[in-house]
Amino acid sequence: MPVDKLKENFERQKKIVEQMGQLLGALKESTDSEEREIISSQIKSLKDFLKKSGLEFIDTAESISLPKPLNTTPVPVYSLEKTKEQIPEKNDFKNKPNTKKEKVSELEKMTLKRMKKKEVVIVKKKEKKPNTYVKIASGLFYNKAMNLISKGKFYSLRRDLIMANLEFVPANYISVIFFTTIFSFFFSLFVASFFLFFSLIAFPPFIVSFEGDLMERFLQIFWVILAIPALVFTFAYYYPSLEKKSLEGKINRELPFATIHMSSISNSMIEPSKIFAIIISTGEYPNLKKEFTKLLNDVNVYGYDLVSALRDMAFNSPSRKLGDLYNGVATTINSGGDLSEFFDKRAQTLLFEHRLDMEKHSKAAETFMDIYISVVIAAPMILMLLLMMMRISGLGISLSTSMITLVMILGVSIMNIFFLAFLHIKQPEGA
Fold first, then answer.
1. pLDDT of 396 higher than 80
2. Is residue 102 part of a domain?
3. What is the pLDDT of residues 331-356, one digit of tens each?
4. 165 and 307 fall within a common domain
5. Interval 122-139 mean pLDDT
6. What is the pLDDT of residues 140-156, one digit of tens each?
7. Residues contacting 324, CB < 8 A, separation 6+
8. Are residues 219 and 277 in the same domain?
9. What are the C-alpha distances in Å from 87 to residues 76, 83, 91, 167?
10. Same domain, 157 and 224
């Protein structure tokens, strides 16, 4: 039917326009020239396809004939007498059928509810606006960052940014590092100026003016001006690496169970890329979902074949185990092997390694408990006894009772905070 063809053509054109809108949005956000070239070529091909569909639409529309012949059947003429005979008498209305509504059963209500069409909820994606801080940093240092990248600098940082899934272009992140370091330098000048003229004490008012030689004081606090920017630069440089390690641990904890799931799916002889799509749709593996989404984007958006996409993702994967899985799947597809058997064997290996990791973490927890008892409980008690003996005997540093109490409370609190932070970093998620 021509009308059905028109409908199909219209739906096709609608999807093309939606894809073009998404690609135009990606083109605006992209700063990489190579990526912009790829997106532009895709937009051009979609334009050509849209033009071709439009011409087909016009041809199909012209082939439809809308006019219809008039109905020539004669209209029956009724006589007045017959019409009168057909009009019911007043008494006839008394015998009219009962039109009261019958009570609808619960089963019928449920059936009617299922038959109703569910309203389609359209979720509008919120566009992320560029961060003002990043915009300022890029405006000041983008050209410098690009110059350093073209010379091969910051290679490991760029690799960590890709693997950690941080929403930064390398040049922008390097610009942020430079801008933050300079900002921290001015902050360190403020801190050094404060300590040049003021001192902190343990009793109220806690801040007092310094009454000594300013030159000697400046030499004592000069290291602050260099230390704060150095610490900020080091932390910013290694932050993507820390994020990558954290992401690797999360992926490794999800991977054994996801591989078992993939093994059961592959038994149905489904197309390999659909396996990753099904794992994404389950929503049970949030960290693997991001990695598998990137894999499918390589296939569906950038046009790579599955094997090439798997090799590319294995190279850029934050997890070595996930990279090995990608390479194994690519090799199995190339060699025509049994994917179900591969996933089954890989799941057994990953589960065994997972059990070993859990045992290692439990042994480490026992060691940390012994360290906690000796460092946080026994050591402060021994130190307090030593300070009290020194105060009574008058040897060495003589502190008042209130000062010893304050030192012990602060020391134990700080040690507990550091110990809890260390345990939080070392403890696996969900353990």
1. no
2. no
3. 999 998 889 899 999 999 999 998 89
4. no
5. 76
6. 999 999 999 999 889 99
7. 314
8. no
9. 18, 7, 12, 80
10. yes
283: region left, alpha or beta (phi > 0 left; psi from -120 to 50 alpha): left
Cβ-count burial 293-306 (b if 16+ within 10 Å, e if not): ebbbebbeeeebeb
Q: Using one digit for the tens of pLDDT, what is the confidence trace for 196-215?
A: 888 777 667 778 787 778 88
- Six token digits for residue 163: 């693997």
**How many domains is the chain partitioned into structurally?**
3
On whether both 31 and 14 belong to a single domain, the answer is yes
Measured between alpha carbons, how far is 38 from 26 in angstroms, rounded to an integer?
A: 11
Of 145 and 425, the one with more pLDDT? 145
- Whether 256 contacts 428, CB under 8 Å: no
Q: Kindly state the tokens that stand for 183.
A: 């900002």
Q: Length of the chain, please?
A: 431
Domain boundary among 214, 242, 270: 242
Partners of 198 in the β-ladder: 209
**Residue 85: pLDDT over 50:** no
Domain boundary among 218, 242, 266: 242
Cα(77)–Cα(220) distance, rounded to whole angstroms? 118
Enclosing domain of residue 319: 251-421
Name the region of 20 (left: φ>0; alpha: ψ -120 to 50; beta: rest): alpha
Are the beta carbons of 172 and 134 closer than 8 angstroms?
yes
Residue 65 dihedral angles phi and psi, to the nearest 5°: -105, 110
Structure confidence at residue 111 (pLDDT): 67
111 lies in some domain: no
Would you tell me the crossing angle of helices 170-197 and 155-163 to the nearest 10 degrees?
A: 110
Angle 379-393/401-426 helices, nearest 10 degrees? 160
* Predicted model pTM: 0.60
What DSSP element (H or E) covers 20?
helix 2-29
Give the pLDDT band of residue 230 (cuts 50, 70, 90).
very high
- Tokens representing residue 299 in the block: 């296939």
Q: Are 207 and 267 part of one and the same domain?
A: no
Q: Are 39 and 62 in contact (CB under 8 A)?
A: no
Residue 79 scores a pLDDT above 50: no
pLDDT surpassing 80 at residue 303? yes
pLDDT over 90 (residue 385): no
